[in-house]
Amino acid sequence: MKNFVLNLIFMFAVLSPAISQTGSLDTYFSKYQDDETFTVVNISSSMFAAIAGLESDSIDPEAKAILDNITGMKILTKQSNGETYFNEVLNLIKSKGLEEMMSIKEKGANMRIYGKSDGSKYLKEVVLLRGDKDNFVLMQVQGKLSIEQLSQLSRTLNN
Amino acid sequence: MENKDLDILVQKYVEAQTTTEEELVLKSALAERKDEYDDLQALFGYFSQQKSIKTPQFVNPAFQESTPVKRKVISMQWVAAAAAIAIMVVAFFYFNQSNAVTSADTFTDPQLAAENALKALEILSSEINRGQSIAADQLKEFENLNKYLNIF
After folding, report:
1. Phi, psi of B30 (to 5 degrees)
2. Could you say which of A87, B4, B27, B103 has the lowest number of CB atoms within 10 Å?
3. Greatest CA span in chain A, whole angstroms?
4. Hey, are the CB atoms on A54 and B114 less than 8 Å from each other?
5. Cα dist from A115 to A29, A62, A96, A153, B100, whole Å
């Protein structure tokens, strides 16, 4: 009997960090959402559904095609201490099932792009992490995404 | 029994020196001689009378025997299982709660949300392109190196 209870406690102790890890990035966002020094942007799936229903000429059709496949976006930015937060998120991401897709390390500035495959040729999550002395950016995009499509976007919008 | 012996026994009885057997002997002897030893007769008569009085059975309400209530015995295993389920349910809600907090939308206007989302995607896009161009540059350098090595 005593063993049974102890096993249970042990099981729970082992499981609880595993449960909390599944939402670690979300937890990170919520940790700073009330912090005045951060800029937080959150666009929910229902808002993206509303965007998909927009009939607007002001949005480029190619850009619209990307937007229609997005189900959620979260952005967290801060104008200082980018390196500290960069490293903080780096440690979190390691336990999140995200694969590093791109990494640029320049003088005092780090940029990483992570992706989570949906099993086929698309990504269901893309995370951009950038940090230098004066800037910190964490962006999480969820949906059905492709790097080619995203890479094409800046060319489309700048022409 | 001789009167003399009886006298001794009576004397012993009065002095409270008799054994239980001697008392029984004395009692039967006295029963045979109802006219003698008036004092002792009265005493023994009192005793036998006392024995025949039955004390009535009182019921003390303070000590009323309560009929034992049969309690259901729940085994510890079930209690533990229920506790485990309770813990998991609480944990589930606890961990879900933190996610629910973040789902407050920044924008209420879809048009505005779309514009801002695009701005963000543009940054993401340019970062991807920057990464790809750096990779391409390095590839070019690598090719140059190969060319250089091929000369020799």
Report:
1. -65, -35
2. B4
3. 72
4. yes
5. 18, 21, 10, 17, 23
The answer to whether A33 touches A25, Cβ cutoff 8 Å, is: no
**B145, HSE (Cβ side, Cα atoms, 13 Å):** 6
d(CA B53, CA A55): 111
The verdict on a CB contact (< 8 Å) between A47 and B110 is yes
User: Is B110 within 8 Å of A41 when comparing Cβ atoms?
Assistant: no
Secondary structure (3-state) at A136: strand
Q: In angstroms, rounded to a whole number, what is the distance separating the alpha carbons of residues B68 and A126?
A: 68
Q: Give me the DSSP letters along A59-124.
A: S-HHHHHHHHTEEEEEEEEESS-HHHHHHHHHHHHTTTTPEEEEEEEETTEEEEEEEEE-SSSSEE
Q: Look up residue A54 and give its two tokens.
A: 């927009």
Residue B75 is given by DSSP the state: P
Distances (CA, A) of B32 to A4, A44, A132, B36: 81, 117, 127, 9
Q: What is the pTM of this model?
A: 0.58
**pLDDT by residue (tens digit) across B35-55?**
777 777 777 777 777 777 777
Whether A70 and B131 lie within 8 Å, measured CB to CB: no
Percent of residues in chain A assigned helix, strand, coil, to nearest 5: 45, 30, 25
B-chain CB neighbours of A157 within 8 Å are 118, 122, 125
Q: To probe the interface with B, which of A39, A59, A141, A150 has the most B CB atoms within 10 Å?
A: A150
Do you know the residue count of chain A?
Answer: 159
Q: How do residues B59-112 score in pLDDT, each as one tens digit?
A: 777 766 667 777 777 788 888 999 999 999 998 887 776 555 445 788 888 888
Q: Report CB contact under 8 Å: B113, A30.
A: no
Q: Is the ipTM of this complex over 0.85?
A: no
CB A108 within 8 A of CB A159: no
Q: Which value, in Å, is the radius of gyration of the alpha carbons in chain B?
A: 56
